[in-house]
Amino acid sequence: MFGLFKGKSEREVLHAKYKKLMKEAHQLSTSNRKKSDEKVFQAEEIMKQIVKLDNKSYN
What we know:
This protein is an all-alpha fold. It has two helices and no strands.
């Protein structure tokens, strides 16, 4: 109840973008390999940001 109006954290937003890009990459993998690889690369960059945030929060 207390988190009802709470916005998403930066990590949650990045994770949603990561999942979306990976889904798009999977769909493109059968039709356009180059675009699929670009989506995977973008997703990997977002994952690096997520890991950086996680490391920051543990320190």
